[in-house]
Amino acid sequence: MSGESWDPDGPGVLRLPSGRLVRGRGLRRPLPDGPTPTYAVYLLGGRPPEVPWRAEWLRWPDFRLPRDRARAVVVLREAWERAARERVEVACGGGRGRTGTALACLAVLDGVPAEDAVAYVRRSYDRRAVETPWQSRYVRRFGR
To answer: Among 3, 6, 37, 2, which Cα is nearest to 21's?
Structure first.
């Protein structure tokens, strides 16, 4: 356990309604200055780079949906639970489509109505988050 949270004004940090802070980012960009994650979820079609913190890999090809949707629910729920006490990062290659979709799913877990979660993430994280119609549909159906 870290005992330290993200800076709420830090790059890519999304504040969920409960107050939990989660950082979204694109792995093609350099790691931001400051504290590192204590737990991360990497949403990639291929194996992510090795990191010195605990990380889960969800096989999730670019512009698509998670290959194993049942596992995605388990991993995202764990990320949401850990965000109450740890620095959680969610990242894909560019930090928008898959990352935005996963952040919207975390918002649903945090109590945002599923039909409002994409707009919430676009308003609070990145206006171009969740890039495809099927990613939006996935969020609306998440957790059902």
So the answer is: 6
Distance of CA 18 to the CA centre of its chain: 16
First-to-last alpha carbon distance for the chain, in angstroms, is 30
Nearest partner of 61 among 44, 47, 42, 40, judged by Cα = 44
Whole-model pTM over 0.90: yes
pLDDT digits (tens, 9 = 90+) for 5-24: 899 999 999 999 999 999 99
Residues ≥6 apart with Cβ < 8 Å to 133: none
Tell me the C-alpha distance between 94 and 70, whole Å.
24
H or E, element range at 88:
strand 88-92
- Going across the sheet that includes 39-44, the strands are 13-15, 21-26, 88-92, 39-44, 54-59
- How far apart CA 92 and CA 80 sit, in angstroms, is 17
The residue whose two tokens read 């790059």 is 11
CB 140 within 8 A of CB 120: no
Report residue 121 as tokens.
């993430």
